Structure formats: C-alpha cells, structure tokens
C-alpha cells in the first residue's frame, strides 16, 4: 500500500498536455469534495470542473476555493450542476448538458448516495429512490458520458471513471431479485442481504462497462472510514443522531478515520494508476483485485444485471 507521500508525488507527476474535464458527482462534500480539490490542485487549476449535486451553496464555496490557473490562461469552466440522483431522469439530463458543452470528458468520479432507514420509496419513475441514487443513476450517468469518454480515449487523453461504494465487501447477487426490492422489503434480514449485493452491483457495473469500452478505466472504490458528513445529512433522524456521537460509539474507528483531503489524494492516485478495463481500489488507492471469486454465477449475473439496468434506465425518457 502506498504512503500518502508516494500518492502525492505520483499525483504531482501527472502533467496532461491538454486541459482535462473532470465531473464530480456528489462533489459538494465529503469524499467527492476531497477528490475534486485534489484534481484541481494537481492540474494546477488548469482544468474544467463540474460539481454535480444538490447543495448549491456548498458547491459554490468549494469551487471558489479550488486552485486557480496561471494568469493568462483561457477561461475555464468551474460550474455547479444541480441534480437529485433519486431520479434517473435527472442523471440523464445533467450528463447530456455536460456532453453538449464538452464532447470529450476525462475524469468522472461518482460518490453520490445517502444512507436511509426509510425503506422502499418508489418514485414516479417506478424505481426506489435510494436504489436510484446508489446504483441506477450512477449507471445512467456513466452510460450518458461514455460518448465523451470514448472521444477522450480516442484522442489519447485520460478516460477514467470511478464509483465509490464498498469494493471488497460484496457477495453473491440474487438473480431472482434484480433491483433488490425483495431485500429492501425484508426487514433487518433483508438489509443483511442488501449490503453485500449493493457492493457487488458496483463491481459488476464496472465490469459491464469495461467489457464494452476496453480502452476506458472503470473502477469501484472503497475509501474506508473517512470523516465525512454522510450520516449528518441522512434523511433518517436516527442516523443523523449517530453522527454527533460517532466518536463515543466508534472511538477506535473514528480516531483512525482519514481526512477528506487525504482521502482525495489517495483516491486520485488510484484513479490515475488504473489501467484500462475494470478494477477496484481500497482506501490507499491500492488495487485490491476483482470480485466474484468462487461465485460460479458471477459472469451470468453480470450479463443479467446489465440487461436489467439497461431496461430500467432506458425506460426513463427525458
């Protein structure tokens, strides 16, 4: 595992000959904020940056603090795009806006998704809102940006995607419950089935896209414990309460938690080191290998989940 100094040095050595376009979905706080700041820092401000999320005030403050390009540099984009990913259509519209502005996209980092104990909450799209934010809208965002990623790769530029969840914590997926609606309605027993499957969904998403675009990097990352406001922003009052007593409830875990800034360095490191294809990274940006070991249905699950995701996302017309 690389030290923080090694990660910083590797990131500092990145010197693209073009002006990269970075899209940070969920970049208004926490891990997304950390990597957006690292991206701006190591491009010396010479980058087009979109922060996608729901909190305009937070995004505006982050954008104002990002490293600025040298004097005389042509005008660069520093923009917040409002997008509630509990609806797949919002992801599609926002991605289309980016592609209309920039036909080449180099870095896409998705951290959006909130933790809730609300249970099933089906939207007007016929999809559970939490599943949309955690999976379907990520899938839709990546799918809609692929044309820009392909153009970047074809021009010899970076073309890299990372989705944050819990890489390395997955388990077999239930092929009779694609979409996880049965698990979500199954109480605590369902939750225990839900969490490892959600992790595997992110693995299979990366693998599915990598099969279809072999010269683009698709990652699933697990940064580990990072001191972020995720619980404080949860719609569940119980989880918001946990945020304020987290050091009492989990002292060892929290005192070892990584800062947002250090996490950004490590995650950018992992993203820049990834080769084309599918991969997974841990908290230090290190490659942790691929999922599905010992699961004889993994390949079948990948194809069935891809077809399911295509159907759900494709059914939402914008």
UniProtKB/TrEMBL annotation:
One of its GO terms (molecular function) is oxidoreductase activity. SUPFAM superfamilies: NAD(P)-binding Rossmann-fold domains (SSF51735). It comes from the Eukaryota. Gene3D superfamilies: NAD(P)-binding Rossmann-like Domain. Keywords: Oxidoreductase. It holds the Pfam family adh_short_C2. This is NAD(P)-binding protein. It comes from Mycena alexandri.
């Amino acid at each position: 595992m690389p030290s923080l100094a090694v990660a910083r040095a590797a990131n500092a050595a990145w010197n693209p000959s073009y002006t990269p376009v970075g899209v940070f979905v969920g970049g208004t706080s926490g891990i997304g904020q950390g990597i957006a700041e690292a991206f701006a820092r190591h491009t010396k401000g010479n980058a087009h940056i979109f922060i996608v999320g729901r909190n305009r005030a937070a995004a505006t403050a982050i954008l104002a603090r990002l490293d600025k390009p040298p004097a005389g540099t042509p005008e660069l984009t520093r923009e917040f795009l409002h997008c509630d990913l509990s609806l797949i259509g919002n992801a599609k519209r926002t991605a289309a806006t980016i592609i209309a502005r920039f036909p080449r996209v180099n870095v896409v980092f998705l951290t959006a998704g909130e933790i809730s104990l609300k249970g099933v909450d089906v939207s007007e799209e016929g999809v559970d809102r939490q599943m949309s934010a955690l999976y379907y809208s990520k899938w839709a965002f990546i799918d809609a940006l692929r044309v820009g990623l392909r153009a970047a790769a074809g021009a010899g530029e970076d073309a890299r995607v990372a989705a944050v969840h819990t890489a390395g914590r997955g388990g077999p997926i239930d092929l009779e419950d694609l979409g996880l609606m049965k698990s979500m309605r199954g109480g605590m027993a369902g939750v225990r089935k839900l969490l490892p499957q959600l992790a595997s969904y992110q693995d299979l998403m990366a693998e599915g896209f990598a099969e279809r675009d072999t010269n683009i990097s698709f990652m699933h990352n697990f940064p580990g414990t990072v001191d972020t406001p995720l619980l404080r922003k949860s719609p569940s009052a119980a989880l918001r309460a946990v945020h304020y007593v987290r050091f009492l409830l989990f002292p060892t875990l929290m005192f070892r938690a990584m800062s947002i800034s250090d996490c950004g360095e490590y995650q950018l490191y992992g993203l820049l080191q990834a080769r084309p294809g599918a991969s997974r990274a841990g908290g230090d940006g290190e490659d942790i290998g691929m999922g599905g070991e010992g699961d004889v249905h993994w390949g079948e699950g990948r194809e069935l989940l891809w077809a399911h995701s295509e159907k759900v996302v494709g059914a939402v017309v914008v």
